[in-house]
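quick one before i forget lol
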Amino acid sequence: MNAPETETAIAASDAMFAPLEWWDVCSRAGEILWTRAAGAGSIAKATARRANDLIEFARATSPFYRERWRGLPQAGISLHELPVVTKPELMSRFDDWLTDRSVDLAAVSRFLADRTHIGEHFLGRYLVWKSSGSTGEPGIYVQDRAALATYDALLAVQMRSPQVASQYAWGLARGGRAALVAATGDHFASITSWQRVCRGTPWPNARAFSVMAPLPELVAELNEFQPAFLASYPTTLAMLASEQDEGRLRISPACVWAGGEYLSSTAHMAIERAFGAVLVNEYGASECLAIAHSCSRGHLHVNADWVVLEPVDRHYEPTPPGEPSHTVLLTNLANRVQPIIRYDLGDSVTASAEPCDCGSPLPMIRAEGRRDDVLSMRARDGSFVRLSPLALTSIVEEVIPHHRFQLVQTAPDEIDVRLDAGNARRAEWPAAQSALLAYLAHQSLDNVRLRLAAEAPVPDPRSGKFREVLADPRAITAH
């Protein structure tokens, strides 16, 4: 499909796609409610049926999976008998991975290169976004109509809970202004899905704010907008909660949504206390937006009728309940254009052997996810400026997308940059340095020094996972 045809398809789809989608959402939401009302046994049966259907479909339509599963039984094989797949493996076979032979990496990359298309439909029928590349390997993900309807339906079902529904109704009564604070400058999952919803619904009171903005500027914009709903990353919400406590931020959201990072119980309580609002925690990924959601007790419940999560050790053997996993294998039962089947997600997850006292039939987990630090840097005038880790990582990923890195605060006004770029390490440094210095200057931190560290990025000694933004305790002073 050439460029003019692609533009025509995008325009046509955005005019008529949303009404059809909402019908799909209502139908899917009803199905979810019916299945869950019947209990854990009903959920398990639905999951098994969908997994079998997905395996058969992927084998028939994805050259990658057909080759990967060669030699395995054609029928009767269970999901847990299939081999594990990784992001580098899938991205290296992108065209063969997809089940729609009209979609290829070259066309998708051209689409993603134009940021005016954020939130628009690719080829008139798919939504496309990219991952941040926090593992050193960026990913590109294509979502079909059924997957999008399922994500929306899972959210709609969650919002039916008395705890959320009452806050949602209160927010609508106050004008329904919704604010997302996120990385807005590229085709990331959060802003892409947000823009899609804003385009597809008569919701003029929704606005996205950039996490890259200096904190005082962001606070001023939110004070002017006065959102009834606020959504962002946990670290950003914690920063905003501190601003609210100190009186600089003055908003009264009815409901706050968190996602994209690890949310500690301490941060959860601090955010709810600061805003006087219910905090809903979402666990999702670029590979599957709706993996799990929090209940009234603050526990995460896996959407097990549409998602299979397998906590495993470093050898991909099952991890017992109560024990943190080395990684977790994800199977997304909703998306067929780009099947995610036993995919090494990289997060550490702890499954619970006990049911939650909220009464949900869905399994309960604790998910680590991204656990980067907020950096507090000293400016020239002696004041301290807090920096969002998502903003910092987005800056570096933009200029060196295929290399692992770590930013380590080693002094109140100094950051060590660890690059794992092999022989290209010193060649990549000027671009990373220039981008970071420009961002720091925009944050009134033109005095901060950057140093190319001699060591490569290292994993956390406890979890074995890589953290990208670290506040070295020796660099922290009382302030």
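fyi The mean pLDDT is 85.
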